[in-house]
Amino acid sequence: MTSTSATPTPAAPAPGAALSAQIDFEFSLLTLGRASRAARTDLLAWIDEGVLTPVAPSTGDAATWRFGADSLARAQAARRLADDLAINAAGVALVLDLLDHIAELQARLRHASGG
Amino acid sequence: MDFKDYYKTLGVASTASADEIKRAYRKLARKYHPDVSKEPDAEARFKDVAEANEALCDVERRAAYDTIADDHRSGRSSGPGSHQNGSRRGGQPFSPPPGWDSGFEFSGSGSDGESDHSDFFESLFGRRAAGGDGAQPRAARARPGGDHHAKIRIDLVEAWRGGTRSVSLRAPVADAQGHVLMQERQLEVNIPKGVRNGQHLRLAGQGSAGTGDAPAGDLFLEIEIAPHARFRLDGRDLFVDLLLAPWEAALGATVQLALPDGSVELTVPPNAKPGRQLRLKGKGLPGTPPGDAYAVLVLALPATDSPEAQQAWRTLAEGYPDFNPRAATAG
Fold this sequence. Notes:
Shape of chain B: flat
Order of helices and strands of chain A: EEHHEHH
CATH class of chain A: Mainly Alpha
Radius of gyration of chain A: 19 Å
Order of helices and strands of chain B: HHHHHEHEEEEEEHEEEEH
Oligomer: heterodimer
CATH topology of the largest domain in chain B: Helix Hairpins
Shape of chain A: globular
Strand order of the largest sheet of chain B: 6-7-11-10
Radius of gyration of chain B: 30 Å
CATH architecture of chain A: Orthogonal Bundle
Distance between the termini of chain A: 57 Å
Structural class of chain B: alpha+beta
CATH class of the largest domain in chain B: Mainly Alpha
CATH superfamily of the largest domain in chain B: DnaJ domain
Number of domains of chain B: 3
CATH architecture of the largest domain in chain B: Orthogonal Bundle
Helix content of chain B: 10-25%
Structural class of chain A: mainly alpha
Distance between the termini of chain B: 62 Å
Largest interface: A-B, 42 and 70 residues
Number of strands of chain A: 3
Strand order of the largest sheet of chain A: 2-3
Strand content of chain B: 15-25%
Number of helices of chain B: 8
Largest sheet of chain A: 2 strands, antiparallel
């Protein structure tokens, strides 16, 4: 089948073969942008604010940066906040920090009252 | 299909200015945004609010909508079951009257086309063009395939042990003419042991195929762990109630506690207080390092439904003449 503008379906795996799901994968800036549907400029702004941190290296040529699997959820949350609520990069960083803090407080509350 | 009152959704009058609409939308968007909201039906309400804003923030669309809304309010809408008494709500079926949109031009400043609108919105403003990212072919240019995303719900025991899971995915696919169809495919996936709630799994190459020599995109599965009746998972840590008889808490006891992957024996020290948590190191979600499990002590009182049982308690009370649990709170 020649590819045209249609979205071709991926090849089906052999019957009976289960696909192995990876959990320790990494992203480049490019693939993180693709997976999270965030623009490169947004990603760079969020990285500057500390929303996302490359695992290594963290300076130099951005093309060499690598991000852990957990970055996807964080980049997606950042994009939702930026798109849906029109929040700038500094605001997104603050909101995510506060949400982390709230989650931590709620966990402590649950522990204190006996799980 | 029901009529949707977008002004009511935003809590503004139908005569509201554009600024008032924008302000109302922004406030409600913050309130119901699923990432920050604790309201029970946040996601549905956020969608309603966003759709109302989309309809009313654009001058053309608002004008078109107002025509419909006026007709609806005065009971002039066509369609089966429409009443003439001008009643506005109550499941009154709605369909736009023929020719209502003649003279209105929608400039269609779209977002990225992945919005899912209600049937009502689409009946008024049409469906966005399918194939949001590059519907027009760029001849012979190799483009990597797009990534697909899906959420799968597993139960807690599956998260513990891992295992093979059949996943059904439905995705909209555009055919060569640009018609959008829902295509279903079935995948067998190995879920690794010890996945956390919210974690992403990657199935490389299972996204859309690329064009030319470019690689296929990936499929990302977001894990959602269903709530469990007895166990509560907090990150990698597990919390489970350990029910004790009063004498077990007072005198100490060795008890069996069921965990997701088998039971453990643990020793409750004497004089144990309800609410105390006994930490079972490494018995949480498997991983490197594994999480911990916490047995939360809960007192279970037997039913006191016989004279002998009541006497047993009275004897116990006599053994503690000075015990007053309310001493600290006495006026």
